[in-house]
Amino acid sequence: MPLLEAKALTKSFSEPGSSIEILSGINLSVTAGESLAIVGASGEGKSTLLHILGTLEPPTSGAVHIEDKLVTSANSAFFRSHKLGFVFQHFHLLDEYSVLENVMMPGRIAGFPSSKEKGYDLLEKVGLSHRAHFAAKQLSGGEKQRVAVARALFNDPPLILADEPSGNLDHNTAALIHDLLLSLTQNKTLIVVTHNLAFAKRCTRALRLSGGRVYEYRDE
Q: CB–CB of 159/4 below 8 Å?
């Protein structure tokens, strides 16, 4: 049974007098423990696809199933807080909160018991336990992304989604983020949108999004 399955996904945006279709009947499935990279040119809809898979926005038509359950407007918040972890290109940390508070935020949102010990443990894994009580705004870009990785793991979700997680980082820092994502999600499922083909090749498999459809990625 796939952990996540998308069936005939389409996404269209309306403009005065016309409609633009970004995704055109996409089918894909991801099994537990798999790492899947989605590559493609800018503007092809990679982030849109990831947002739909992650229940952040609905498709125009088609369906997403997570753990064999249909995602609907009524249950999407449950999936986001209990089954999914997100890592974004622009971090989306709460700058005035401490690093530890940012890591623990998914637990607060989901109503889980507060666990500073778990937060410290995750910060230790990303090499930032010494920054636990700094305000997030005091961190570098690479440090912020490492905090975002720890935050995505706080609720122990089975599925991690990452949208260009190294897009704003220099080469060495990007490589560190790639290593962290792959090592910390070994027992989970990872779906990542990336322009970094070297990172994509390290995943279990890769798909190219082009013309609204997905194809098996072929190294060129």
A: yes
Element (H, E) at 21: strand 18-30
Which pLDDT score is estimated for 220?
Answer: 59
CB 121 within 8 A of CB 184: no
Q: Which residues contact 137 (CB under 8 A, 6 or more apart)?
A: 95, 96
Q: What is the pLDDT of residue 16?
A: 80
DSSP string, 54-107: TTSS--SEEEEEETTEE--TTTHHHHHHHTEEEEETT----TTSBHHHHHHHHH
Query: Hunting for tokens 């990785």 — which residue is that?
Result: 149
Kindly report the CA angle at 59 between 56 and 61, in degrees rounded to 5? 160
> Residue 30 and residue 50: Cα distance in Å, rounded?
13
Q: How far is residue 91's CA from residue 150's CA, in Å, rounded to a whole number?
A: 11
Question: In Å, how far from its chain's centre is CA 67?
Answer: 17
By the 8 A CB rule, do 146 and 103 touch? no
Which positions of the chain have pLDDT values less than 50?
none
145 and 166 Cβ atoms separated by less than 8 Å: yes
Tokens of 208: 């190219």
Q: How far apart are CA 161 and CA 220, in angstroms?
A: 26
How far is it, in rounded angstroms, from Cα 211 to Cα 114? 45
Q: Extract the tokens encoding 27.
A: 């089918």
Taken as a whole, the chain contains a residue count of 220
Q: Structure tokens of 139?
A: 């961190």
